[in-house]
Design a protein that fits this description.
This protein is an alpha/beta fold. The protein has one domain (about 25-190): Rossmann fold, CATH 3.40.50.360. It contains 6 helices and 6 strands; from the N terminus they run αβαβαβαβαββα. Strands 1, 2, 3, 4, 5 and 6 form a 6-stranded parallel β-sheet that branches. α2 (about 50-60) crosses α6 (about 180-190). The longest helix is centred in the first third of the chain and has 13 residues, at about 50-60. The termini are far apart. The relative contact order is 0.18. The structure holds flavin mononucleotide. Flavin mononucleotide binds next to α2, α3 and β4.
Length: about 190
């Protein structure tokens, strides 16, 4: 049976999100030095994951890198969902354009993505297969349109068997007013806060 299109609630980020260049708190600096350097590595098609990534980065410090693709997905929503579905069905490995920093310098990698068809977009397969995450702690976080975190964390675990993958943070769209406290709660729960 062909999966019906857009069988999930999806609401795009509306309005402008202004991300300020907030400086790190003393707690973030202390956490960073006791735990080694953090990398917030994310992809965002319509901006929601980017908002979450920015807040996480302000709390944990370290570097923030956005993933780009050699052939970006269409900016048209319907076309993008079709392309993403096709890539999932074909088990594709979309090529990454971003040159990653040397992962050896990081202990914890916060990995952020929008949920696409119940899991990670296929370029996260490319990312996790083509780079060595052995010995790293991967802390997954996602933005979704109502369907939750889906299969994404188990797929990440399968693709990075030599990494420690924490419980994921599941955020509807851009998280709203509770985003900051939701992130704090998640960081505490997975033992990566303060
Ligand atoms: C190709 C595609 C597939 C999607 N699949 C799902 C899904 O399976 N479940 C869900 O809850 N939301 C789904 N969504 C909605 C996105 O996860 C949601 O809008 C998210 O906030 C987008 O994050 P972003 O702004 O960082 O791209 C999908 C969106 C797109 C474009």
């Amino acid at each position: 049976m062909k999966t019906t299109r857009r069988n999930f609630v999806f609401s795009m980020l509306s309005g402008a999100a202004i991300i300020g260049g907030a400086s790190l708190s003393d707690e973030a600096i202390a956490a960073q030095s006791s735990r080694g350097k953090a990398l917030v590595l994310y992809y965002s098609w319509s901006g929601n994951t980017k908002i979450i990534a920015t807040q996480i980065s302000q709390k944990v410090g370290g570097d923030m890198v956005e993933l780009d693709l050699v052939k970006p997905y269409s900016r048209n929503y319907n076309t993008c969902t079709d392309e993403a579905k096709r890539d999932q069905e074909q088990n594709a490995r979309p090529e990454l354009k971003t040159t990653l920093p040397n992962l050896a310098q990081y202990d914890v990698i916060y990995l952020g993505y929008p949920i696409w068809w119940g899991s990670i977009p296929m370029h996260f397969y490319t990312l996790l297969e083509q780079n060595d995450f052995s010995g790293k702690t991967i802390a997954p976080f996602c933005s979704h349109g109502g369907g939750g975190i889906g299969r994404s964390v188990s797929d990440i675990k399968r693709l990075s068997p030599n990494a420690t993958v924490t419980e994921g943070l599941s955020v509807p769209r851009a998280g709203g007013s509770s985003l900051s406290s939701d992130i704090d709660g998640w960081l505490s729960k997975i033992g990566l806060r303060g």
